[in-house]
Design brief:
mainly alpha
Length: about 70
């Protein structure tokens, strides 16, 4: 729904305020469908950095989405 999409973008914006690179990783991986290596190439970082950012961003976004779902 429109509301769910708005919650998702709001969560991504909150992540971006904390870590712009993690937000870019989410955009590339989730919305762009890029692999770890493709994301690393696009962002100019190592695949290990993408893996670390992806691992950190996913639980943050999950908590954010759960929080907005209960409001």
């Amino acid at each position: 729904t429109r509301e769910e999409a708005d919650d998702g973008w709001g969560s991504l914006e909150r992540l971006e305020a904390l870590s712009e690179r993690q937000a870019r990783v989410v955009e590339c991986r989730y919305f762009g469908g890029l692999t770890i290596d493709e994301t690393a190439d696009v962002l100019g970082v190592s695949p290990a950095t993408v893996k670390n950012d992806w691992a950190a961003a996913r639980p943050f976004l999950l908590r954010e989405l759960e929080r907005t779902a209960t409001q």
